[in-house]
Write a structure and sequence with these properties.
heterodimer, A: 292 residues, mainly alpha, ABC transporter involved in vitamin B12 uptake, BtuC, two-stranded antiparallel sheet, 11 helices, 74% helix, 2% strand, B: 428 residues, alpha/beta, Rossmann fold, 8-stranded mixed beta sheet, globular
Chain lengths: 292, 428
């Protein structure tokens, strides 16, 4: 394959991973921004979303598109509600103490993973794509669904941005982010904002899971890698900054696509991790993060 | 490193624990059958119950339990009842070494067996050697016969990768093509494939035109397909782990219905996966190596039906309880055959307790002929006591109508190679 098509394939692959990463990481970033909570269970929420998507899609008769759509509608609220319950029942009682919250979410990660292992089993299982369009380019074929994932992720991120900047819920969330005590003094129910934010963050991971699951497959350990990449993205972009998260996701995704195709996949992981180290040394607040 | 207390003056905690354990064991003893008066033979099983090997672990446990039931019903081993102690290693090498310790020191097992994933074997075997406990692996890796391990580690229940590949290569070169691109996992198990297949196909006048190593945690493969040279006639793929379906699906998207190379895969890619899964249509007409054909062949031996019934697998290779629960059929027989190998060696050596472990290993090394029968449902084997490795025949199957149909069986001799080590000259 010559250089042009090779680069095109690398960029397309990179764009897909960037889109999914942006969705995942924005959830993580949102939770940290508003609540100052490092959610180690974020990848487990992603996995839970995928398992539920498999379950829902398997119980809807008719062509695969209905099952997938049902999953897209039902699963993110389910995961969101579950996360909100975790916030109210566990994190709130720990008073959002950073170390305690990290330990608690690690525990949650294990509970979710082992629950999936018991209920769903150790095997990898597929979810049918809603449509099977295949694009035949002159040099190679490519999945049309993957390009749809990019577009859909873009739409979800746009909606998230509108919610954050144009709605009352977004305003309340931003107010809580700036100053929790003052927000409470103005009559904002901070507990409910926290539960809502934690739920929204998890729901974003679940949306990413439903989108990505037809291109990969459901497995109870699938949350590990996305979690790691999300942390890398959020650290580079700046914790709590949506814009930074998006830019960082694009950098990580595209560089991963190009570097792993032209050189080696391990090299791209090395570079991403090195980038995190450099950012932490020279710009600890991240590319777009505000100074703490 | 952890050491175990073996002093003669027990600590207070040890006494209390012992009393507690005695109470539990005592009350359990009330409901035990009468024949359990002879002390049972305790076999430790290093099980991949969690982690990436969990699909295999589930079936290894079922298979070992089935063999155990059969053996105990027939009077146990050397007149003693047998029990298996399962301990989860999380498919993790560091944990694997701890499990060896635990099974040996805490549970007091007579020996340890059942490990599949090669990195866990590599992590655990040295500890088994230090503890001087017989360690019988079911992992296919060439690491036993290569001489990398020790006198206490044996692989009597499954043929190793080098032998599998040497017996496959002539068929691949003769029937599919001579210019091969290889996809393999980027760790020890994959390197065995890379090195030995490359050599074996060159011996047939063929050539490996590209070697593409995939990191074990990879989830997307399209990017690697761009590296497949256009002259490729055969795509050789061996992948392990949950990414397999994606690999095949993306291969289908990449090539579409246009011209494509022949596919030859190791069934490791599709263990525990239904070959009729939507998205796998691309595999139709392609070939797979199988140790033990998943779909019962028309010419299956006499023991096949009994074995399937015992382990609860139907003629399509799925659980009789759930047709969606597909077995890891080409590997799990090794747990069964290893247990029968243990039986044979324990009875031949007159093994009575841990003091006889060395005698037990020597008795294992003395075994050579392992004929076909219910003890070896996969087929007859020859055990090489010097290299601690068993050799058996292999099968090639073709996917027709979404099902694996056996098309070729190799002989044991086709998979033989010169000894690389003589463990019997090493000290215990």
């Amino acid at each position: 394959m010559s250089f042009g098509p090779f680069l095109l394939l690398a960029l397309m692959e990179g764009l897909v991973s960037a889109a999914v990463l942006a969705l995942m990481a924005s959830g993580l970033s949102l939770v940290f921004g508003v609540m100052r909570v490092v959610n180690v269970a974020h990848g487990a929420f992603f996995m839970t979303g995928a398992v539920l998507a498999w379950f829902v899609a398997g119980h809807v008769p008719g062509p695969p598109v209905w099952g997938w759509l049902a999953a897209l509608v039902v699963v993110p609220p389910m995961v969101g509600l579950m996360a909100a319950a975790v916030d109210t029942l566990v994190l709130k009682r720990l008073e959002y103490e950073p170390e305690a919250v990290i330990v608690a979410t690690i525990g949650l990660l294990y509970i979710l993973e082992q629950a999936a292992l018991i209920g769903f089993g150790p095997d990898a299982r597929p979810v049918a794509a809603p449509f099977s369009l295949r694009l035949q380019l002159p040099w190679f074929g490519y999945s049309g669904y993957k390009l749809f994932v990019v577009a859909a992720a873009g739409l979800v991120l746009l909606a998230l941005w509108l919610v954050m900047t144009r709605t009352r819920f977004g305003l309340v969330m931003r107010a809580t982010q700036v100053d929790r005590t003052t927000a409470r003094a103005f009559g904002i129910n901070v507990d409910r904002v926290y539960a809502g934010t934690f739920g929204l963050g998890a729901a974003l991971a679940a949306v990413a899971a439903v989108l990505v699951v037809p291109t990969t497959q459901v497995h109870y350990l699938m949350g590990g890698d996305p979690l790691l990449l999300s942390f890398i993205t959020v650290i580079i972009g700046g914790l709590g900054s949506l814009r930074g998260t998006l830019v960082a996701a694009l950098i990580i995704g595209l560089s991963d696509g190009v570097i792993s195709m032209f050189w080696a996949p391990t090299l791209s992981k090395i570079i991403a991790t090195l980038l995190v180290a450099l950012v932490l040394v020279f710009r600890p607040q991240g590319l777009f993060g505000a100074k703490a | 490193m952890k050491t175990t207390l073996t002093s003669f003056a027990p600590s207070r905690r040890a006494v209390l624990t012992g009393m507690g354990a005695g109470l539990i064991a005592g009350s359990a003893g009330l409901v035990r059958p009468v024949w359990a008066q002879a002390a049972p033979l305790k076999l430790g099983f290093q099980l991949h119950a969690t982690g990436i090997g969990a699909s295999y672990g589930r079936w290894y446990q079922r298979t070992a339990d089935a063999a155990l039931k059969k053996i105990n019903e027939a009077g146990g081993i050397g007149g003693r009842p047998v029990e298996i102690v399962y301990e989860d290693d999380g498919t993790d090498p560091a944990r694997g070494a701890e499990v060896v310790d635990k099974l040996n020191s805490q549970h007091g097992c007579d020996l340890i067996f059942g490990t599949l994933f090669s990195h866990v074997v590599m992590g655990s075997a040295p500890r088994a050697g230090e503890l001087k406990v017989p360690y019988l692996v079911c992992s296919e890796g060439y690491h036993v016969a290569s001489g990398a391990l020790n006198r206490w580690t044996l692989q009597p229940g499954i043929t190793d990768v080098r032998s599998q590949i040497s017996s496959m290569a002539p068929w691949v070169a003769g029937n599919l093509g001579k210019k091969v691109t290889m996809f393999f996992p980027d760790y020890a198990f994959g390197y065995d494939h890379r090195d030995f297949f490359t050599k074996a196909i060159e011996a047939q006048g063929g050539q490996v035109v590209a070697q593409i190593a995939i990191p074990p945690t990879e989830t997307s493969y399209t990017r690697y397909f761009a590296q497949i040279p256009a002259e490729t006639e055969v795509l050789y793929h061996v992948m392990v782990g949950p990414g397999v379906l994606t690999f095949v699906k993306e291969l289908g998207e990449f090539y579409g219905s246009g011209a494509k190379p022949q596919l030859f895969g190791f069934i490791d890619s599709l263990e525990a996966v239904d070959t009729a899964t939507p998205g796998l249509e691309f595999l139709e007409g392609s070939h797979f190596w199988e140790a033990h054909p998943r779909v019962k062949p028309a010419d299956a031996g006499a023991a096949e039906g009994d074995y399937r019934a015992a382990v609860g697998v139907d003629d399509n290779g799925a659980s009789v309880a759930d047709a969606k629960d597909v077995a890891t059929y080409s590997h799990m027989f090794s747990a069964w055959e290893t247990l029968y190998f243990i039986k044979q060696a324990v009875e031949a050596s007159g093994y009575a307790g841990v003091a006889d472990r060395q005698k037990l290993v020597e008795a294992m090394e003395a075994i050579s002929d392992l004929p076909y029968g219910i003890e070896r449902p996969q087929g007859a084997k020859v055990f090489n006591g010097k290299t601690h490795q068993a050799f058996g025949s292999q099968n090639i199957s073709k996917i027709e109508g979404g099902k694996l149909v056996k098309v070729h069986t190799t002989t044991i001799d086709e998979g033989k190679y010169d000894d690389a080590v003589d463990y019997t000259t090493m000290s215990f």
